[in-house]
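During the reporting period, we have paired protein sequences with backbone structure tokens. One record among many follows, to show the layout:
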Amino acid sequence: MRDHHARRRRLAVRVDDHHAVVALDDRGVGVDLVGRRRHRHVHAVGDLLDVEARVTTRRSLVGAAVHGGVRYHVVYFRTVSDQGSELAGRVAIVTGGGQGIGRATALELARLGADVVVAELNAEGAERTAKEVRGVGAKALALPTDVTKLADLTRMVDRVRADFGRIDVLVNNAGIYRAALPLDVTEEHWDTIMTVNARAVFFASQAVLPVMIAQRRGAIVNLASMAGKIGSPNNLPYNVSKAAVVSMTKSLALAHAKDGIRVNCVCPGFVETDMWTKVARDQGAVMGISAEEFTRRRAQAVPLGRMERAEDVAAVIGFLASDRAGYVTGQALSVDGGLVMHG
């Protein structure tokens, strides 16, 4: 089934509250088998479903039909309401959730059924993502938060407990990037990178741990990077900060497995976000090439042949936050299209 529909990567489908049945012809045109209406673009609660990722494996729901003289492949899609049971009733905090991977993660967790707290330094960005989360059908709270300030982290936890009564998932996504050769790294550069990318991850985790311990369950997912697993001549503070997150993840996982708390991290590669725009500009300047040329070369280096999307990372975070990963802890999962294999 997956191979048969491999060329039909994405299709928006019409749904009711519980399910959607559509048919695809060889051109990818959809026919709603309930309403008998042809449509190329009809929306599933504002969502775009991935055929390969979302199609059910139950064969009774897959077949063929003839409509209007055209033979169609019949596909059953689980809708947001069906998918949303995995994290139903749970509350997730996503730091740095106003854009990029954080935004994509907030939406992924909402689609899985969680209520989402968008903890973001930029209040406007936080509210923008929160509005999108509500559009998926989940509750959302936009919470302006400076993760480098312990008082903000304490207020964050207190507010979430007051509004939702629990904290089930923490995604430590907030982070920054600055490039410099070793001899050009200043004390301020080093301290800023380490404070945001490593120190804040620990203290945000420390802030939610008492709540999770009392619940006897919880999942923490940290954003590391492939940079934390390899060397780089002009990213030293950034690489060190992400390596610290990998080590921290393992230590926290060991310390709190007995409390029913799982701690993992993801290590993305070249993700096309606002941060990547800065990376490409800075690194390209060091190499004497444009940001566009730098991005093109990096994409060519990826074994899977393309740049990474924020949604690629968010999908793995959603898995780690869910009970599907109930026996996974202390892991640093590479989500990089195979880049780390180059060493």
Summary: The two ends are 35 Å apart (CA to CA). The chain has two domains: 10-81, 84-342.
